[in-house]
Amino acid sequence: MELFANDTQTIEANNAVPFTTALSSGSQSILWRAGSSIITLRGIGPQLRSRFRVSYHANVALSTGATVAPIEVAIRVSGEALAPSRAVSTPAAVEDFNSVGATTLIDVPAGCCVQVSLANIGTSSIDTENVDLIVERVA
Which residue, 41, 43, 36, is CA-closest to 26? Predict the structure, then answer.
């Protein structure tokens, strides 16, 4: 499944990016509702676990009125940021867009579900645009 949020959105600290469009559909193991920031991954099938590759790319900037500071975004699983997916960008000035991205693997035990989102884990509100999130079941 590939999700996209093209328009500029302001994301407050500790909030997730809502996605507006699915560029490719999911499956029974990858669920998403239009306008939501949450993607549900389901551990279904004969294996003991399901493995998903989650990748993102986003253009980010500090929102108007913010003090110049590092921007931090990461993939969250069930509300907790995954350290390997953390991206940090320090813009030269407020409203200067930079590109960030990361990829991580997420294991879901058989019969379980986890919720995944892309979140602003920094301390300032940020603006995002052209945010792309790709979720693939790989095993």
Answer: 41
